[in-house]
Amino acid sequence: MIELTNVSKAYRAGSGRRVVLDDVSVVFPTGVSVGILGLNGAGKSTLLRIIGGVEPPDRGSVRRDVRISWPIGFSGGLHTTMTGRENVQFIARIYGAPIRRVERFAEDFAELGVYFDMPVRTYSSGMRARLAFAVSMAAEFDCYLVDEVMAVGDARFNAKYRRAFKERREGASVIMVSHNPQTIMQECDIAVVLSRGKLTMYPSVDEAMSAYRELMST
Fold it and tell me: Phi then psi for 144, rounded to 5 degrees?
């Protein structure tokens, strides 16, 4: 179970503040895959990062009793002064995963060659993304967090990533952000709609989609 209690988050926007989460309380049940729907800028990715512990809320609390991945492909948590290998070792320690096994998997999966032992600040954006994908797939979690773009690099790397993700999904749930309704319908059991800082959970994807379409038309 993942439980958010009175969670609020806002950012500076010009001379004011933009509230993306306004006193949100919600429970994401164990073993259920959840889609997150909302207009551009609604705060979907911020919500995902808060669920994963990558970003703290301004107020409120998040309780987790399952092993949660960081958002798949999210490279913002990589330390740019550390090498790829050092980042992988550091993340493995945080998640309590076998360091050497995670390291070997990530090195092979990311296909960075000699760059795996170079500082992340020397990487291209694509290389950082590949390392982030590799770390996300290196350890097994009860719930995977998935943000919009689930692919990076050429078609061969994409295919390899999707095979690995499919294997991980067989024994885990997902919390997914996507603008593609078909993806949400295929991957999720229920869905939530985020609008104006408020989060509404619906018992079925169809009901959430209906509310989302109405939101888009206003």
Answer: -105, 135
- Rounded to whole angstroms, how far apart are CA atoms 162 and 170? 13
Domain boundary assignment for the chain: 2-69+175-217, 84-140
Q: Which CATH class is domain 2-69+175-217?
A: alpha beta
Tens digit of pLDDT for each residue in 98-123?
999 999 999 999 999 999 999 999 99
- DSSP annotation string for 193-206: EEETTEEEEESSHH
Angle between helix 125-138 and 84-95 (nearest 10): 30
Cβ contact 174:146 at 8 Å:
yes
pLDDT digits (tens, 9 = 90+) for 142-176: 999 988 655 566 778 878 878 888 888 888 999 99
pTM, full prediction: 0.84
